[in-house]
Structures are given as C-alpha cells and as structure tokens.
Specification:
The chain is an alpha+beta fold and 483 residues long. Helix content is 30%, strand content 24%. It is built from 13 helices and 21 strands. It is elongated and about 80 Å long.
Amino acid sequence: MEPIMNRIWPSVFQRLYRTAVLPRRNHSGCAEQATVPASTNSKHIKPTLLVSRLYQPSNLRDVGQDSRLQGEVTCKSQRLMQQAGLIHPSNPGCYYYLPALVRSMEKLVRVIDQEMHGIGGQKLDMPSLCSADLWKTSERWDLMGKELFRLKDRHGADYCLGPTHEEAVTTLVAHQTTLSYRRLPLLLYQITRKFRDEPKPKYGLLRGREFYMKDMYSFDASEEAAYQTYESVCQAYTGLFARLGLRCVQVQADTGNIGGKLSHEFQLPADIGEDRLLVCGNCSFSANVETMSSDRTDCPQCKTGTLVESKGIEVGHTFYLGKKYSHIFNATFSNAQNKSSVAEMGCYGLGVTRILAAAIEVLSTEEGIRWPGLLAPYQVCVLPPKKGSKVDDAAVLAEELVHTLGETGPHLRGEVVLDDRTQMTIGKRLKDANRLGYPYVVVVGQGALEETPRFEVICQETGETMFLSKDELLNLLGRVKTV
C-alpha cells in the first residue's frame, strides 16, 4: 500500500497546486487573476483589462491604406468600424463581429430586453431554418422572390433561412389549444441572426445579407386591444431611442410583403439614408414617400404646413397585422364566452446591428467613433506615460487608478481599460482612443506626481479637456451610466 500511495500523493499535490494557484477561466474565456496571497514586495496591482490584450489586429485599423478593402468601403460608419477593429469583411454582406463590437451589441440587447420586458414581452428563440411548407401556406414563398435564402436538405425537402418569423411564431401559438383570453395580450420576441439575399450589399452593417434583429409578435383578443398593444410598442421604441440619445422619427410606412393594416418606420435622419421621407415642419406628420405622391408639398394632417423631403436610415418597423397570419394558421384563443376566436396580431422589428452602425454613422466625426453613451465597448481608457519618459513614475499611479475606479464605482467594473502600450507616445495612443471612441480618456502624466495630483480628462462627446483631482475624477466618472 505504501509504495502505491507514494506514487499517488505527488499527483494529488500537483492538482491542488494547480487549483489554488493557476488562473481559472471565466465565462468569457478570459483568464481570471489567480487567487494568491499578495507579495509584501509587490508595489502595485496588476489591472485585468489591458489594451495590449484586446483582440484588435493592427492590420484592420489601416483600412484606408489597404487597396483591397478601400474599394469596398461605402460609408463613414463602415470605414470607422473597420479602422477601429470592430468588424472585418468575410464575404459580400457578411462580417466578423470582433470583441469590442460584441460588447456594444450585448449592451444594446440588454437595453432592448429592458424595454421589451417593460411592456410584458417574453423572450424566446425560434429556428433560423424554416420549413418551406409554412411559407407556402402564407404564400410568401413566392412573394419574397430572390431575397429569400433557399436550400434543400438531403431528403429533398425545401427550407429557407428566416428573414422574419411570422409563420413560425403563429404556428407555435396555434399549437397551444388552451390559450385563454385572460392571458392576452401575449408578446413573444427574439433577438437572433436573420438572413436576406441582398442583390447589392453595401454600407457595411447597414445593408447586409446576415444581421441581428429583434422581432416581436403580439396576439390580442380584439382589434381595439391590438391597437393598444401596437401603441405601447411604439412608445417603447421611442423611449429606447431616447435612452440612446438618437433622434429617431416615427413615419407612416408601407406594409410591404409582410402585410397588415397599419405600419410605421422608425427612421434615423442621415444623408446616406436609402429611404426618402416627407416631414411637416408645422406638425408631427411624417411619412415615407412610398405612401404618398412624391410631388406633394402640402401636409395632409394640419393642412397648412409644408412637407420637406429628407433621407433616413430605417432602424425599426412596426406592423398591425390583424388576422392575416392567425387566420391562415388557426391561432385561436378561448374568449369570454368560452368560444374559439381568432387572435389579432402585430409584429415589431428592430435592427440591432443596424442601430449600432447607424448610430456611428450619425454621431461620429470623420476621424473617430462616437457612441451612444450606454453602448460604448468600454467607458474609460487610462493612459500611463511613455516608458522611459521623465514622468515614468506615474505609471504606478495609472494602474492604481484603474483598480480604484473598479472598487469605488461598481458600475465601472469591466468598463475601464489601461493602455499599457507604453512603448508608444501618449499622442499615438490618444489617436487610437479617439478612433475607438472611449467616452472618457484619462491621461496620467506630470500632474499626477504633484503634491495635489491632477489628471487630464478628455470627454470625447464634447471634446472638452479637464484637469481634475482624484476626488473630482471619481465624482465625474461616478455619474457615468452603464447597462
């Protein structure tokens, strides 16, 4: 027994050592800081978020000098997003979403979830691979034409990659034969990849073949209730864009191949917008030109205002469907008289990746990205001095500041990065910080070594530069909103 134990114990101790000392992996796949006693000789705390470790390949940031990519760049947001290492082209209309963009997208999804839950939305996930039988039943298999990605399985059955899910969700609800009017309205939504075979993909994430979308579907007991649900979703959209600081316009729109009785688009005014809008300067009326005569100049609502044409990027769309799909797929509920009745429906879309790209398009400068505050990948970037410079001693203070921000402001945990590329000048790192669009950049230089330490703080949104004490800096960043 003793020889056997002598062979076992070394491996046991080795496993215990690895468990106690070696870094673990967190849910994101990143190595967590090892839990070991701090050395008494340790002079500073090692921050966990370092710019040198972020996956932003340098070759992606020089898109303007890359002739292969330069010919494909068609708008400001696409150029800036490629320069900053947010996206990388894969094939026409498809992109790699790199880590910084994924962080922003996850934040946007959280904001959308909050707004949808606020009106009673319930999140689910439906298959992207949709049976052709459903689409043929609704007659959209032929109506969609070449925009529908179609494929066959090994048995010869036809499928499509869903650009939208009216057929699928209505079939799901129709399978619930015990649905009572007391459980209505029912609002089901998902945030998933969608597919559309665009003939000429362009403008980066603004018009692609593969994209993320939030699509919600409502089921109501009556037409009156359905209109109330429709209005509540429109109000939630308005609130969402207000939270993001985006000036969206709700315009009357065509129902298109989705169909229905009523439709509105949420448009973000932009010069590169593909939609033509008519807006009255005297009242709240606005419409997509598709719904009106393009040469009309008088407002049909107030009768006195003049319609002015502008361009917009569609970032949201709402439809009151009535019984178009529920009648076809027999989505019914038991009414107050315990009789079967066909549900009234609505559907509501938000272009998740399009919102991100459109926001960058309208908010950014030609040189750098400007984000809606809540959606920036990271809120704060701290720049220590260049290695070997006269103020090199301030580097320790920069690392301590990153730690302090995370400890004193829990909302900033995971939101502060240290640009540890100290072989580069402050100027070059400031240029990179401007490109990515950190809302706040803190330069730790000579002022931090003074008797009363001062930090240079740059607010990217306003362009303002401030020199603040540590307490003033903590107070400023303590008011930053995160999600």
